[in-house]
Amino acid sequence: MASKTPRRSSGRRSKWATAALIGIGLLVTGGVYAGASAAMAATETPTAATQLTVDDGKKLFQANCATCHGLNLEGTNDGPSLFGVGELAVEFQVATGRMPLQMQGPQAPQKPVQFTQEQIEAMAAWVQSVAPGPTYPDDEVLDGEGDVANGAELFRINCAMCHNVAAAGGALTEGKYAPALTETSPLHMYAAMVTGPQNMPVFNDLNLSTEEKRDIISALLFLQENESAGGFSLGSLGPVSEGLFIWIFGIGTLIGITVWITAKSN
Amino acid sequence: MAHEEDALEHERASWKPSPGLAVAVPDPVQNPGLPPHRARMTDKDPAAMTRAVRTVYTLFYLSLAGSIWATAAYMLFPIESGRIVDIRNNNLFIGLGIGLALLALGLGAIHWSKAVMSDKEFIEPRHATRGRDATREGAVQAFRDANEESGFGRRTAIRGSLIAAVAASILPGITLFRGLAPHSDKSTEEGALAGDPVALLKQTMWKEGERLAHDPSGEPIRAADVTLGSAVHVIPESLAELGHSEGYLEEKAKAIVLLMRLLPEDLPAEYNNLDWAYDGIVAYSKVCTHVGCPVALYEQQTHHLLCPCHQSQFDVSRSAAVIFGPAARPLPQLPITVDAEGYLVAKSDFTEPVGPSFWERH
After folding, report:
1. Is A12 helix (H, G, I), strand (E, B) or coil?
2. Do the beta carbons of residue B110 and residue B90 sit within 8 Å?
3. Partners of residue B233 in chain A, C-beta under 8 Å
4. Closest Cα to residue B97, out of B74, B61, B67, B60?
5. Quick one: which of B262, B314, B261 has its CA closest to B287?
6. What residues are paired with B313 via a beta bridge?
7. Which of A253, B75, B226, B333 is the most exposed place for a label (fewest CB within 10 A)?
8. 3-class SS of residue B330
9. How many CB pairs under 8 A join A and B?
10. What is the pLDDT of residue B293?
11. Does the distance separating the beta carbons of B304 and A265 come in below 8 Å?
12. Cβ neighbours around B267 below 10 Å, total
């Protein structure tokens, strides 16, 4: 259908002018904001730290953690003692942003990480030197080359009741929850199993062998890396999200078609 | 309709208003009749009719294309490499083809009938519910004649044998389906249990001296290896040797146990039977007493167990007492001790049936 509107010779703006002006304005604003935030991020990146010593770790711990955990890991009324938790617990709690704790509550949520990896390792080394505990694993345990099928079976038996069979997380009692493992790094999966953070049971080597942990990590990495065979996973929450989807869109479509079938043609 | 000239005539003739209930109103509601006929665009405008016809056959050709595409997709996206993404593509593209084929067929048919087929209103009166007296007598007479001619009422030998034969014909079905039910075999102990669901529900594989083993490997567990804060998923050691055809899943469903170690001060003697625990290690059935979901969401600091199905909560530090939710009873506790080699063993079977209630539970 060809437009028969005559081209205006002068005076009036085109009907597209307003839309074009808004579009340009939005683009400019967005561009400036993106540039500015990139610049901010660039200035926030710390300069590569020189090797931090165990002493630096002690100072960092006493400045940032001792209020609750005590100057020598002995704990206070506000926080548990850290004897025997080991460097792996420090790595898990600090490098996922759970510590420093933002407030007392049912569970420490994940937050943006507050320290550089060097600082975390220095604190971990100091905690380990005062009262030893679980340590960093061999790289082989985290390589994701284990037996995926066996790992998935072990995951279903030991982990899935809280973390969901598709590792999408789930609710526990009184505000606690098992987090989703869809973004978790292999090191933090291992650390969580070994140290049993918060209300998670401990799956040390006497319960699940190192090889079995490697299998479980491989299965979780497989889930992270491979797209869902069934198409849209809708959060992998089972009947909650899938039921909601089909009630709204499936039944909505059926109602629409029914209305169309019964309406008279005009 | 076709078989009666005025369907309601004889009903109208015989109808009398019920005395006393009818209210005569001065302005009774008048039958408004049919709304005026409204011509469709396709009736008024030949171009619109051409468009509608084109839409209908385009939809039918789309349906044809969908069917051809589904057939082609079956060959283009085979499930041969064993990769999961192949199954996904195969399902997706065949499904899109079949979906398009059926949907376009339906839409085309509906659009045809709504926009193209003739559009006239007409009234189709209901025929009377009650037949005319003559029709009713005719039907009775037909049965009477049939009885007379077949001799069904008169020849009692035939009638009796027919009834007996029909009744007997369901006997094989009853026999066959009865054979599907479990049967007791009194010669062995296990066989005697097989046909008795109540006895089956009251016992599990656990017995005195049966070692507690990891699920699913079947490796026995030493008491020294159960650390504070751990939760170990446990099966009877001899279960791991059973094959799937030998009742592995049936036995596992009853015998699964969760093993936890608590500090001695978290297991107060007034709430716990410490004879059934070993050095702070306790073992509870994983089958919820509500409707039988596996209860294994253990919180190691609160010592609460949560059932994911209906949010029943059990307090492990108090004999797994119910502290929230619909479960009616605590989880059954498996009495445990250690054997000479330090491995955890059961002292006996559970002392009550595991899992949800059933009629003859007590």
Report:
1. coil
2. no
3. 157-158
4. B67
5. B314
6. B306, B324
7. B75
8. coil
9. 81
10. 92
11. no
12. 22
CATH 1.20.1440.230 fits A54-130, yes or no: no
Beta strands in chain A (DSSP E): 170-171, 177-178
Q: Would you say A198 is a known binding-site residue?
A: no
- What number of residues does chain A have? 266
Cα B4 to Cα B2: distance, rounded to the nearest angstrom:
6
Report helix, strand or coil for B315: strand
| Interface predicted TM-score (ipTM) | 0.72
Q: Which CATH number fits domain B204-346: 2.60.40.10, 2.70.70.10, 2.102.10.10, 3.40.50.2300?
A: 2.102.10.10
> Quick one: average pLDDT of B203-215?
92
Token digits of residue B117: 């087929």
pTM to 2 decimal places: 0.71
User: Rounded to whole angstroms, how far apart are CA atoms B304 and A199?
Assistant: 10
Asked if B216's CB is within 8 angstroms of A173's CB, the reply is no
Under 8 Å CB-to-CB from B278, ≥6 apart: which residues? B223, B336, B337, B338, B344
B190 contact partners, CB below 8 Å, separation of at least 6: none
Render pLDDT for B180-193 as a digit per residue (tens, 0 to 9).
877 777 777 777 77
pLDDT value at position A40? 62
- CA A43 to mean position of chain CA atoms: 25
Give φ, ψ of B345 to 5 degrees.
-130, 160
Instruction: Looking at B77-170, list the stretches that DSSP marks H as alpha helix, in order from N- to C-terminal side.
Output: 84-111, 133-150, 156-168
Residue B199 has pLDDT above 50, yes or no: yes
Name the residue type at position B68. I
Inspect the interface and report whether the beta carbons of B216 and A153 lie closer than 8 Å. yes
> Rounded distance, CA B279 to CA B337, Å?
9
Helices (H), A45-139: 54-64, 66-69, 86-95, 117-130
What lies within 8 Å, CB to CB, of B171 at 6+ separation is none
Instruction: Give start-end residues of each CATH 1.10.760.10 domain in chain A.
Output: 54-130
Residue A69 marked in a binding site: yes
To which H or E segment does residue B232 belong? Answer: strand B231-236
Asked if the Cβ–Cβ distance from A231 to B119 is below 8 Å, we say no
Nearest-angstrom CA–CA distance, B295 and A203: 18
What SS3 class is residue B288? coil
CB contact under 8 A, A227 and B42: no
Nearest CB among B85, B230, B306 relative to A203 is that of B230
Enter the CATH code of domain A139-236: 1.10.760
